[in-house]
Amino acid sequence: MNRLLIRNGILLDPAQNIEGKRDLYIEEGIVKQVAEEITQVPEGTEVMDAAGCWVMPGFIDLHVHFRDPGLTYKECIETGSKSAAAGGVTTVCTMPNTKPITDSVEIVEYVKTEAAKAPYTHVLPIAAVTMGQKGTDIVDLPALKEAGICAISEDGRSVMNAKVMKEAMKQCAQLGIPVFDHCEDENLAGGCINDGEVSKKLGLPGVSRDAENAMTAREILLAESTGAQLHICHVSTKESAEIIRVAKAHGSKVTAEVGPHHFALSDEDILREPHSKYKMNPPLRTPEDVEAMKQALADGTLDAIATDHAPHGAEEKTADLMKSMNGIIGMETSWAISKKELVDTGVLTPLQLVEKMSTNPAKILGINKGTLAEGCCADICIADPNEEYVVEDKFYSKANNCPFIGWKLKGRIKTTILSGRIVYKDNIII
After folding, report:
1. Which of these is catalytic: 13, 68, 308, 379?
2. Closest Cα to residue 227, out of 251, 201, 205?
3. Which of 20, 242, 342, 381 has its CA 20 to 30 A from that of 184?
4. Residue 259's closest CA among 402, 362, 127, 363?
5. 59-365 is a CATH 3.20.20.140 domain
6. Amino acid 303: pLDDT
């Protein structure tokens, strides 16, 4: 029988409002006991000393791209799962812009089968809203729900036809399927970096913030009309944050996420080093937007932190900003970057950070995770908040398109436990 005792750690569990020294006893993948001190455990129990470390429910990343099927030279489910474990992430939601698109039961079953071969994180597939992400014919939602999707998303774009999107939302409301929305009006989009002073200085076409803002407003109105559970992906502008804030104040049940890059970097970073590692969609915005993202996290407007982990091959992330593909990897650095930018600066408490990275994402998905209460699944992340290191150009991901290489961080993931089994410890996948 698999038994583990974690001793002397600082338990951070917002769901139980616990922030203090606790021991955890785990048996067969389930948290069996949580106490200030556990002295008696069955013979043969593995004991782990977590003195000085934060013990947290494993992180849940609502927004990742594992590129499998079809684009596995960028990432596959195995390498993506290992990358997740190295970042303390125990559950991921995989976006559907694969090749072929995840729009059928067969592709969902493929993802689940490949995930079972790589037991380093729980993989929850997201299906497309429309067939082939072409924006016209809605996918077979009842069949896809039965197959095990956690949400739908047109990922990387919006369904431009409001009538089609409204009908999809109606069906999702009836079936209880969340809608994860990339808000971008393609008629207002275009360009390669944020439309503003930086794009003018570099002589590059800019991406209008109106593209995100207008679609954010539309989708919230459609969700309120249909009763759909709407989750806004990767918010990046102060206006979109304010739209969501006002909607919540008027009773909307909309939720929203932000990526670490959108509160850690701004478009001004591109002036210091014009390189495609800063190119993503939505683009890095202004320093004012960065501060707005932090404020929106602090006041609860933004519910979750999700990476939008988007691996690419080296030849696809060239120095040419116009030709380079959008996206960066982020799972292996997300907690430490978030701690640096949010906790160490007083924007969030340690407990609030766990809420954004684990507890709230579990609520959005409606899954029994995001807590280490007795009887719950033992998905656990243990981190040393004081260990200092420099981010190296070495990742478990196949890709290295990361803008944080060379950053000095304080706080390192030490151990990741999946269903009571250690899958990552001291920089090594087990």
Report:
1. 308
2. 251
3. 342
4. 402
5. yes
6. 98
Say if CB 93 and CB 54 are below 8 A apart: no
CATH of 3-55+376-429, one of 2.130.10.10, 2.30.40.10, 3.50.50.60, 1.10.3210.10: 2.30.40.10
Residue type, 305: I
**Which pLDDT belongs to residue 309?**
98
Residues lower than pLDDT 70 in the chain: none
Q: Residue 160's CB: how many other CB atoms inside 10 A? A: 15
**Quick one: how far is CA 291 from the chain centroid?**
20
123 SS3 class: strand
Predicted confidence (pLDDT) per residue in 391-427, tens digit? 999 999 999 999 999 999 999 999 999 999 999 999 9
347, 237, 333: which is closest to 297 by C-alpha? Answer: 347
| Triad 235, 239, 243: Cα angle to 5° | 85
Q: How far apart are alpha carbons 238 and 213 in whole angstroms? A: 9
Q: Which of 138, 73, 69, 139 is nearest to 110 (CA)?
A: 69
Range(s) of the chain covered by CATH 2.30.40.10: 3-55+376-429
User: Is there a contact between 320 and 330 (Cβ–Cβ < 8 Å)?
Assistant: no
Pinpoint the alpha helices (H) of 250-394: 260-264, 269-272, 287-298, 334-338, 350-354, 360-365
Q: What is the pLDDT of residue 190?
A: 87
Residue-wise burial string across 382-391, b where 16 or more C-beta atoms lie within 10 A, e elsewhere:
bbbbeeeeeb
What pLDDT score does 1 carry? 75
**pLDDT at residue 273, rounded to an integer:** 81
Long-range contacts of 349-352 (CB under 8 A, 24+ apart): 350/12, 350/19, 350/54, 350/385, 351/12, 351/14, 351/19, 352/14, 352/298
Q: Which two tokens stand for residue 392?
A: 């190296």
- Looking at the chain, the domain(s) classified CATH 3.20.20.140 span 59-365
Degrees to nearest 5, angle at CA 341 with 391 and 267: 85
Quote helix, strand, coil % in the chain, to nearest 5: 30, 25, 45
CA distance 284 to 280: 7
Query: Which 3-state string (H, E, C) describes 179-231?
Result: EEECCCCCCCCCCCEECCHHHHHHCCCEECHHHHHHHHHHHHHHHHHHCCCEE
Distance, in Å, from the CA atom of 154 to the CA atom of 138, rounded to the nearest integer, reads: 11
Distance CA 296, CA 303 (A): 9
User: Would you state the pLDDT for residue 45?
Assistant: 96
